[in-house]
Specification:
With 198 residues, this protein is of the alpha+beta class. Helix content is 37%, strand content 26%. The protein contains 7 helices and 6 strands, in the order ααααβββαβαββα. It has a 6-stranded mixed beta sheet with strand order 1-2-3-4-6-5, sandwiched between helices. Helix 2 packs across helix 4. The protein is globular and about 40 Å long. The model has no long low-confidence stretch (mean pLDDT 89).
């Protein structure tokens, strides 16, 4: 699991319990399971998709992806993570999102990717906006933090356009212990609501 946002919030016990319950239910999401491992492996085997993402299991093998899916499901049962998949028109895995949640802090982060041939269609930006809205409205989070590699211009533009505030850089740590400097953003629910009311 990655590091929580820089800004520290404290959830009330009732708020924390509600967030955990919402994560366990994952309403409206197709939660990744064993039946999606081969599709996820095929998606992530493309370096154009996986190279910019620091928290993926490496190497991208069937067994490593299966373990990642199983670990994500165990964390979902704790109310801390949702690994979901999306599909292309033919029913193949076309993308994934992984929401990491810190219920005790009413905070989370979003990571994900779409297959290279599905990028540049505008659907990715819409998907990010929908995921952010879902994290605030359905999960009940009050803060979302995001990172992107310093040279990941496409993600940086999308994050800026979604209304996130740049908060400098952080040191991201991969599961294998390697580190990477990352750009870092935050968005509060109140700022998001204000932006979408106007």
């Amino acid at each position: 699991m990655s590091a929580p946002p820089k800004t520290v919030l404290t959830a009330t016990p009732d708020e924390e319990a509600a967030i955990r319950d919402a994560v366990r239910r994952a309403e409206g999401r197709t939660v990744a399971g064993p039946e999606h491992v081969a599709g996820l492996q095929a998606l992530l085997a493309d370096p154009a998709v996986s190279d910019p993402i620091y928290d993926l299991p490496r190497p991208i093998t069937f067994d490593n992806v299966a373990l990642w899916v199983a670990d994500s499901e165990a964390l979902r049962q704790e109310g801390r993570c949702i690994l979901s998949v999306s599909f292309d028109e033919a029913g193949a895995v076309g993308g994934y999102s992984r929401i990491t949640v810190w219920p005790e802090r009413a905070s989370g982060e979003l990571a994900g990717a779409r297959r290279a041939d599905l990028q540049n269609s505008g659907q990715g930006a819409r998907g990010v906006a929908q995921s952010i809205a879902w994290m605030f409205e359905v999960l009940g989070l009050r803060l979302i933090g995001l990172t992107a590699a310093v040279d990941n211009i496409r993600s940086a533009k999308a994050i800026d356009a979604a209304g996130f505030k740049r908060m400098g850089e952080v040191e991201s740590v991969r599961p294998d212990g390697a580190t990477r400097r990352s750009l870092y953003w935050e968005l509060t629910r109140s700022d998001w609501e204000l932006r979408h009311r106007l």
